[in-house]
Amino acid sequence: MMKDSFSSFHPIVNFGYFAAMLLFGMLLMHPALQVIALLCALTYSILLNGRRAVKFNLLYMVPLFVVMAVMNPVFNHAGVTILFYLKNGNPMTMESILYGVSAACMFVTILIWFSCYNAVMTSDKFIYLFGKIMPALSLIFSMVLRFVPRYKEQIKRISLAQRSIGRDITQGNMLVRARNGITILSIMTTWALENAIETADSMKSRGYGLPRRTSFSLYRFDSRDRLVAGTMLALIAIMVIGEASGRNDMRFFPSIKMAHTTPFSIIVFAAYLLLGMLPVIIHVVEALKWKSISSKT
Amino acid sequence: MEIYQLQDVSFTFPLSDQATLSHIHLTIASGEFITICGRSGCGKSTLLRQLKSILTPHGKREGTIRYAGKPIEEADQRTQAAEIGFVLQNPDNGIVTDKVWHELAFGLESLGYDSGSIRLRVAEMASFFGIQHWFHKSVSELSGGQKQLLNLASIMAMQPSVLILDEPTSQLDPIAAADFIETLRKINQELGTTIILTEHRLEEVLPVSDRLIVMDDGAIIADDTPRRSGQALFRMKHPMLAAMPSPMQICAGVEAGIAAIPVTVKEGRQWLDTFLQGRSMELPVVDTESRGQSVANAIAGGGKRQKPVIQFKEVWFKYGKEAPDTVKDLSFEVEEGQFYCIVGGNGAGKTTTLSLTGGLVQPYRGRILIDGKNIAKMSAKELFTNKLAILPQNPQHLFVKKTVEQDLYEMLSGSPLSLAEKAEKVETVVQFLELEPLLTRHPYDLSGGEQQRAALAKVLLLEPRILLLDEPTKGLDGFFKERLAHYLKKLNAEGVTIMMVSHDIEFCAKHGDVCAMFFDGSIITENATKAFFAGNSFYTTAANRMARHVWQEGVTIEDVIALCKKSS
Predict the structure, then answer these.
(1) Which of B125, B164, B297, B386 is positioned for an S-S bond with B157, CB 3.0–4.6 A?
(2) Closest Cα of chain A to B381: distance in Å?
(3) pLDDT tens, residue by residue, B225-279
């Protein structure tokens, strides 16, 4: 899998992008916008995760989409355009069918966005963002991430040590196993507390607890980040204006009413497409640039 | 300029009537490299912790400690954090954050540096220590040696003027330990940082030390250059002499040429040559009556053999389906009553072999027979009662109760014995391992060597016929090693088979019957101990490296001393 260029941007840019896309994805019900969002999410997820994403989308997202789209009209009978009546006498309306499709589309889009979010926003970036708000919390996060693998390893070692005297959770009958499990946990607790004293010494000896602690990170907000952040803000502004002027309106019940498509709504749609495709565009541009550089040397 | 001045310093822990440190006088000049040695519990660590008052344990201190001319109490936390670096014994416990780069920045963040300066300092340190290749890694992916180097680097990033290290290499394998000492030498030589460290393994550290301080029972008994400290110990006939490097011990044992007592193997060779000049050398006849002979015979294809208790038959093992083979085509046999040592580098698969022998993991090809029975077909109960037991590398993994005594009884909790029988069993083990004074203590309050003895006691309550040991000498001082060897020999004499995995060549050479060299997932060579080490030219004891140009079979210190004494 190729390294995604958008991931190398500043965490604030990454986070801002996903926040905007998730929010718009949940709020905007206009079909054109929904299709754009789904398309962008799909493209980006395939770019990020390759074949795994294709498999994920086909295997889970398509069935989910179908189920959700079918379930809504079966239970929801609002709407004025009645197509036919079900056996139990309930009406099947066009509005509820379309609403089902729209809601399913929104749901699937959000899920795919989250799969992209997971690939881009690694724990470091998350910690960094939170560290900006609460420095103490970011250190705790970092320490937790240090301790979890360490404790896991330790549990494994204790369990092996206990197995070698015939007292592991894999040995003996149910009761004995449960007792052995508790013993292992108890050893683990004693061990953790005992060793935490030394870690506390190490922190103290390196000045932890002094006032005016700073928070260091490897990230730098450079001109590239400024450019992309500026572009994103401009596109988001267009979207907000579009929303405010009613260009994105969509109503399902009781009857379907969609905002008229004006030249301005075309601009809004284009802005949304551009915003959603931003990581893909960045990636393609950088890949092309790389190709042209490497062909020159 | 003096960086530390200790005048008549004594220290007593609360509720203790005996002083842990008594009347210490010590002056440390800026830029010195000082090694402090002494038995476990002699007060080394307590002394080190006096030198950084925020780490000083509770207790009563008398006398004055001056840091850079002023009483140490006047140095505030910021000064102490920035100027006095302290590296702990266990590399894992020193590390606080999850990423290498974050750990390097931790101290600087505490001191409130801005991002730009931190970036520069971190970059400098990463380059100085050669960390840039693993700069972005998670701490959990690092080896023990890398972790300790990271601890050191994250302290050096604060640019301290003194570096205090409490047995920094005791948890590392010999190669990583030598690397670490080399880095310390570099820091001392190139940056002029004062270094004060405590250490058990003196072979690597003495050649780079300016001063060797020997402590005993809370007092300093020798404080001079390594050579002169060694001479002083010799004049006192002090037991700490046994902790000195082999060349020193040989010279002291021969009681000749003390004026030029050798510190390194190189000096040792020169000393030996001078000593043997003009003397007729009488090579001792190699003692072939030792029990190692059975193996020598077995290898030659004849002679009488003991019953094999551990048999590996073309065993292959890997940790995952896609993982590389950790153990490859391994075949060997351990005979009943043998003391079998497996030596070899890190990551060669030694510990895995031990786990395989204990049935903790299963091979994917080949068979392992214990007492002639396939281990894969044995139940845990069958395997671990009166048959086989493993002493884990970290004895703390076995302790479950508040006192050592309760812990020993816990071991018998599942057995149908009556209380009197249990008491009798525990009593026997306690006497055997001389645990009486420790019975009421909490297992975690014991020293490393004592913890191991208590853990050994727990394991012995299972009355094993085969005992597997994983690096039992790790972090122990010479005195505890000898005690351990003594118990193991006693067990051996009772017919218990011992299989040990170790980095400690000197220990294996002195006490093992058969040694096997592990490399790349398999045993490369195996032989009776003496023949094994005599056959290696690099991977052998210091005494052998010192004497092999005149006598190849001289493996242990005692051998070489005997040789020197016989030549006249």
Answers:
(1) B125
(2) 7
(3) 999 999 999 999 888 888 899 999 999 888 777 778 899 999 999 999 888 887 7
| Averaged pLDDT score across all residues of chain B | 88
**Number of residue pairs across A and B with CB atoms under 8 Å?**
164
| DSSP-assigned beta bridge partners for residue B214 | B37, B222
As a whole number of angstroms, the distance between CA B232 and CA B216 comes to: 13
Six token digits for residue B419? 């209380």
**CA nearest to B106 within chain A:** A206
Could you tell me if A75 and A155 lie in one domain? no
Smallest CA–CA distance, residue B34 to chain A, in Å, is: 21
Q: Cα separations (Å) of B6 from A278, B21, B26?
A: 66, 12, 5
Domain that includes residue B564, residue range: 245-278+537-568
- Inspect the interface and report whether the beta carbons of B358 and A195 lie closer than 8 Å: no
pTM attached to this predicted model: 0.84
CB contact under 8 A, A210 and B95: no
- Closest residue in A to B390 (Cα) is A164
Based on the fold, state whether residues A37 and A172 are members of the same structural domain. Answer: no
- Chain B positions touching A204 (Cβ under 8 A) are 54-55
Chain B interface, best mutation among A165, A182, A195, by max B CB count within 10 A:
A165
Crossing angle for the helix pair A94-120 and A62-75, to the nearest 10 degrees: 150
Considering only the beta carbons, identify the residue of A124, A158, A213 that sits closest to B110.
A213
What is the per-residue pLDDT across B516-568, written as a single tens digit (0 to 9) for each? 999 988 999 999 998 999 888 888 899 999 988 888 888 999 889 988 888 76
d(CA B461, CA B456): 9
Do B530 and B541 share a structural domain?
Answer: no
Q: In the prediction, which pLDDT does B190 show?
A: 93
Distance, in Å, from the CA atom of A170 to the CA atom of B359, rounded to the nearest integer, reads 12
